[in-house]
Design brief:
Blueprint lengths: L6 H9 L1 H11 L4 H36 L6 E2 L5 E2 L1 H11 L2
Amino acid sequence: APSAAPPRLVEAAKQSLAAALGIASKLGDRGAGLAGGARQAFVDGMGSALVISTGALVVAALVLVVAIPGRNVRSDEAGDVADPDDARVDAAVSGR
């Protein structure tokens, strides 16, 4: 907001991009700096949010890779992937 702007106007402009752009449009040519600054602050904030979100996603993926135990998967002669649990189920059903 312009340095000579009333504090109430400055606080309103800090609330949201839409509020800052609305105030800037009412100021005419004097509001160009306010509009540009508000847009730049919004883009900077979005960039920070993207970096933080990406970091959180990477950390979550690493935790899941470590926390979830791996499963041994073998393939039979036909090349089909066999689940090791299938053999246990077959043995339990047939009584072996």
